[in-house]
Amino acid sequence: LSPIVELNVGGEMYTTTLSTLKKHPGSKLAEMFTGQPKLRTDSEGRFFIDRPGTYFKYILEYLRSNQVPTQCVQDVYKEALFYDIEPLIKQLEDSPQIFGELVARKQFLARVPSYSENLELMIRIARAEAVASRRSSVIVCVVRTEEDAARCQDALNSLDMDKKSVVKFGPWKAAPSISDLLDCIQMDVEAKGYKISFQPHVAEKGFRFKSHDFFYKFWFTWW
Q1: Domain holding 88: CATH number?
Q2: For the BTB domain, which residue ranges apply (predicted)?
Q3: Contact 14/56 with Cβ under 8 angstroms?
Q4: Which of 43, 46, 149, 186 is deepest in the core (most CB within 10 A)?
Q5: How far apart are the first and last CA of the chain?
Q6: Are residues 131 and 56 in the same domain?
Q7: CB–CB of 48/42 below 8 Å?
Q8: Rounded distance, CA 17 to CA 31, Å?
Q9: Please, which pLDDT band fits residue 206 given cuts at 50, 70 and 90?
Q10: Residue 90 lies in domain
């Protein structure tokens, strides 16, 4: 291989040295250029990597100067994982953005039973009710403790509605509050491309408990 390497990364063109690409011998990126290159070439003979080219410049800058990016951190982290550049992965995981997501938020959500499954259930219910409507809603029950879960079930039994359409989150054993979980739900559903908002659900007369203690209405806006 020539010591000067031309790359086409997802349509973005880069020129660098072979030694830069092989700086971390155990990485997937280094393996691509070890021995017989395991890459296709484009019409101009440049090695082609089918990844987002926009963020490769940050990978390359790190390999050249050990500069850890402060922009597009989440996206660069995904690319560092793909190229398996272990020192960059570890340094990015110490950044506030990745640390907060992986160590704080994700660890909290891992303690909320069936969190991901409940998000998908919310979306399925909202889509089913969206026929010929601009907005559709999903009732969510959020309980922090086992005691609240029992009280919520009593409250749910007095609701004049299809109980299968109520999505229940909790209880959990972690510091974040109900409002923190509600923010997480909104954040993660919006990350899937949906436009949503929520408010305390005000139930009918004769409801045994204050509805905002447990129940929230999430609105999906479709157009």
Answers
A1: 3.30.710.10
A2: 3-100
A3: yes
A4: 46
A5: 54
A6: no
A7: yes
A8: 15
A9: very low
A10: 4-94
Both tokens of residue 144?
């922090």
Q: How far apart are CA 170 and CA 213, in angstroms?
A: 13
Q: Is the pLDDT of residue 18 over 90?
A: yes
Helical H segments across 66-145, by residue range: 73-83, 86-93, 96-99, 106-109, 115-128
The edge-to-edge listing of strands for the beta sheet with 215-221 is 166-169, 135-142, 215-221, 195-200
Q: Looking at the structure, tell me whether residues 127 and 190 fall in a common domain.
A: yes
Using a cut of 0.85, tell me whether the model's pTM lies above it: no
| H-assigned helices in the chain | 18-21, 28-32, 56-65, 73-83, 86-93, 96-99, 106-109, 115-128, 146-157, 178-191
User: How many angstroms separate the CA atoms of 114 and 122, rounded?
Assistant: 12
Pair 79, 120 in one domain: no
Tokens of 78: 């995904």
Selection from 107, 110, 111, 171 nearest residue 141 by Cα: 171
Residues 48-90 have pLDDT tens digits of: 999 999 999 999 999 999 999 999 999 999 999 999 999 999 9
Tell me how far apart the alpha carbons of residues 115 and 112 are, in angstroms, rounded to a whole number.
6
Q: Based on the structure, what is the number of domains in the chain?
A: 2
Q: In this structure, how many other beta carbons lie within 10 angstroms of the beta carbon of residue 2?
A: 7
